[in-house]
Amino acid sequence: MRFLASGRRHKAARPLLLLLSLFLVGAVYAAVSPATSSSAEGVADAQLIAAGKNLFAVNCASCHGLNGEGLPQQGAPNLGNVGAAAVDFQVRTGRMPMANPQGQAPAKENTFTDDEIAALAAYVATLGDGPAIPDQNQYDPSSVSAEGVARGGDLFRTNCSACHNFKGAGGALPNGAVAPSIENTPPEQVWEALRTGPGQMPVFAAGAIPDEDVQKVIAYIKQVNATPSAGLSLGGLGPVAEGFWAWVAGIGSLVLFAIWIATRGARA
Ligand code: HEC
Ligand code: HEC
User: Fold this and answer.
1) In a domain, 189, yes or no
2) Which residue has the higher pLDDT, 179 or 11?
């Protein structure tokens, strides 16, 4: 307290003042610069959404209505709360735009570019609440352990195999719908199918199957389909090869034993 009382400046005052002003400049800059970049982002988003709205009017509105409200006479649902993930899934798998709004939307070749799909998804996302397009870390199965794959198998048998078969080969459903093969479905689309429940498939929300468990299910589907020859080599060729070697070794040792007896017998 002596330096205050004496009225003299502390000798650290100047450097401190300098630091403080540098800090203030930094703080002001930090406060201003994200504002400018987020407004640039805002413009880009607005452009994307506007482009999506145009694409939607041309390709989707005849069934879903100009504002995605759904046209009952076309059997096309309201897209208010389906989210960007549903659009990404439906358009990427070629299900949408449907050619004929009857029955189950068949998967076919997608004719939209990635940018067009992003625009359509961004527009539909503005209509309400729904799952966003996932980040890779939400569905990527590459860090799932062996126990994780086993857990994925349990989840799959409990929740999916009734419709899709035990290894995801697919199958017919009683009401005429078809659960498709999911043996080669990209992980991102498995995630999107779970969260959006296309057609007759139920929605599996994050509360029922959280992202970590979705990754395990995906890892299981990959693993069970990555080893298609396991059944053949173990159940088919395996035993034959083992039998062959058992035969060679067994007969071989009998022959050696016979020779041993013969030489001993001759000596006796
Ligand atoms: C010929 C009519 C038709 C056109 C055109 C069409 N749809 Fe659909 N759409 C449907 C019908 C019918 C369904 C319900 C089918 C089903 O659930 O299998 C549907 C379902 C959807 C769903 C799933 C909704 C949900 O509940 O998960 C999305 C998303 C969707 N459409 C987006 C689009 C987009 C985007 C386009 C334009 C690129 C489009 N549709 C064009 C008829 C159409
Ligand atoms: C009640 C039956 C049913 C259950 C249970 C079910 N699905 Fe489906 N699933 C379907 C049907 C039907 C479709 C096709 C929907 C369509 O084409 O509109 C489908 C579509 C899919 C697709 C899209 C495949 C493609 O063509 O790209 C994936 C991935 C998928 N299901 C994964 C799963 C997983 C994983 C589970 C378990 C967590 C599951 N499903 C549970 C009936 C089911």
Assistant:
1) yes
2) 179
Are residues 183 and 109 located together in one domain of the fold? no
Using the 3D structure, point to which of 132, 157, 187 is the last residue of a domain.
Answer: 132
| CATH code of the domain in which 78 resides | 1.10.760.10
My answer on whether 158 and 190 are in the same domain is yes
93 Cβ contact partners less than 8 Å away, ≥ 6 residues apart = 107, 110, 189
- Please list the residues that pair with 178 across neighbouring strands: 172
Q: What is the DSSP string of 127-144?
A: TS--PPPPPHHHH--TT-
Q: pTM, whole model, 2 decimals?
A: 0.79
Please tell me whether residues 178 and 225 are part of one structural domain: yes
Query: Given the CA of residue 199, which atom of ligand 2 is nearest to it?
Result: 18
Predicted pLDDT of residue 83: 97
Digit-coded pLDDT (tens) for 208-250:
999 999 999 999 999 999 976 544 444 333 344 445 556 667 7
**Both 96 and 123 in a single domain?**
yes
Ligand nearest to the CA of 202: 2
pLDDT in tens, 168-218: 999 999 888 999 999 999 999 999 999 999 999 999 999 999 999 999 999
Q: What angle do CA 240, 241, 244 make, to 5 degrees?
A: 85
Judge whether 210 lies within some domain: yes
* Structural domain for 55, as ranges: 45-132
Instruction: Please tell me if the CB atom of residue 118 comes closer than 6 angstroms to any atom of ligand 2.
Output: no
Q: What is the number of structural domains in the chain?
A: 3
| Maximum Cα–Cα distance across the chain | 124
Residue having the nearest C-alpha atom to atom 39 of ligand 2: 160
